[in-house]
Design goal:
By secondary structure, the chain is α/β, with parallel strands linked by helices. It has helices at about 10, 25-30, 50-55, 65-70, 75-80, 95-100, 115-120, 145-150, 155-165, 170-185, 190-200, 215-225, 225-240, 255-270, 300-305, and strands at about 40, 60-65, 85-90, 105-110, 240-250, 290, 295-300, 315-320.
């Protein structure tokens, strides 16, 4: 049988690659895929990681919440000789998706926690503050939109969301400006909101390349899609579905995600508790992971020069032990408690 990598048309399945996978070489290094392995690609996107895993002889369960990604990936499914199972859904449910696909244990899990450039580049998806489009931002194209959040949430909740998820220092000013404007006319378009934020914050000469709306749009996107909740729940799901010796590789793109991943590995690799000469050492449960990356792995200059998106990427990896999985408190892991809104937050 011809290997997947032997056919150029297979590599190009699904049309031109609109999304360049970040830290691809490093992901493959730390996942170490082997023929016969079963690996969950929890953020299938344009299939960049999955293609290389298939070439290495692995079977891949690819998951994506974006219907467009699932539709675009069907050609690669056809070319994979049955080794790519593409599942519409959330990566927080990766354990369920793997079991439903016939696997009670897997050899690897990889997650790219950033939003896809395919989504950012399409004005109609409403993620961009540079291109006019509906104020949407829903990866699954269902449920409450960014416009719903902006127009309906109380000011105090907008302040908290923009401040915590966007790390915007002037969240109070932005939220009150939104509140005043929406009383006159509800927000429906991305540029309406972006221009208002720019008017409130102005442009810093020192950060001329960074649009003033960047942080607020980030906050809305994270909230609308429950990205931090998804990331934390996916860590627990990966812990439960990975076989002993299985590998978990995560690529994050901002401090909020990376903090959750870092805390998870710190907790799950701990082998001894704190203590002092006055207090006995606390007992800790058996470590469920062994750290493979002692510190975050970052992209090389050659990659960041070719793909600026890689500049903020950080990779962390761990190897599953044979200790039983534990319950995971997502808030203790770093997910903030936020206003509940039609299924969002909490």
């Amino acid at each position: 049988m011809m290997a997947l990598g032997d056919k150029k048309d297979v590599l190009d399945a699904g049309g031109p690659e609109r999304h360049v996978p970040v830290l691809l070489d490093e992901v493959l290094e730390w996942l170490a895929p082997q023929p016969g392995n079963v690996i969950v690609d929890g953020t299938f996107g344009a299939g960049g990681y999955s293609r290389k895993l298939l070439e290495a002889g692995a079977t891949v369960v690819g998951i994506d919440r974006d219907p467009d990604a699932i539709a675009d990936g069907q050609e690669l499914v056809k070319q994979s000789d049955g080794r790519l199972i593409l599942v519409p859904g959330q990566f927080a449910d990766l354990e369920t998706h793997a079991r439903d696909s016939g696997f009670d244990g897997v050899d690897g899990v990889v997650l790219d926690l950033g939003v896809s450039s395919m989504q950012l580049d399409e004005a109609d998806r409403g993620f961009s503050f540079l291109r006019d489009g509906p104020l949407d931002m829903r990866m699954e194209q269902a449920g409450p939109s960014a416009a719903d959040v902006v127009n309906e949430l109380p000011v105090r909740d907008l302040i908290r969301i923009i401040g915590l998820l966007g790390e915007e220092k002037r969240a109070t000013s932005v939220a009150h400006a939104i509140d005043n404007a929406r009383k006159e006319k509800p927000f429906t378009r991305t540029l309406e909101l972006a221009k208002l934020i720019e008017k409130v914050l102005g442009r810093s000469p020192k950060k001329a390349q960074i649009h003033p709306a960047t942080r607020t749009f980030q906050a809305l996107r994270i909230y609308v899609n429950g990205e931090l909740h998804q990331a934390a729940k996916a860590l627990g799901a990966a812990e439960r579905i990975l076989k002993p010796g299985g590998r978990l590789v995560l690529v994050s793109f901002h401090s909020l995600e990376d903090r959750i991943v870092k805390r998870f590995f710190q907790d799950r690799t701990k082998t001894r508790g704190g203590g002092s000469r006055h207090m006995p050492e606390e007992e800790v449960p058996p470590a469920t992971f062994e750290n493979l990356t002692r510190k975050a792995v970052e992209a090389r200059d050659t990659e960041t020069d070719a793909n600026p998106r890689a500049r903020s990427a950080k990779l962390r990896a761990g190897r599953r032990t044979d200790a039983p999985a534990r319950e995971l408190d997502i808030h203790a892991a770093g997910v903030p408690r936020l206003a509940a809104f039609h299924g969002l937050g909490g």
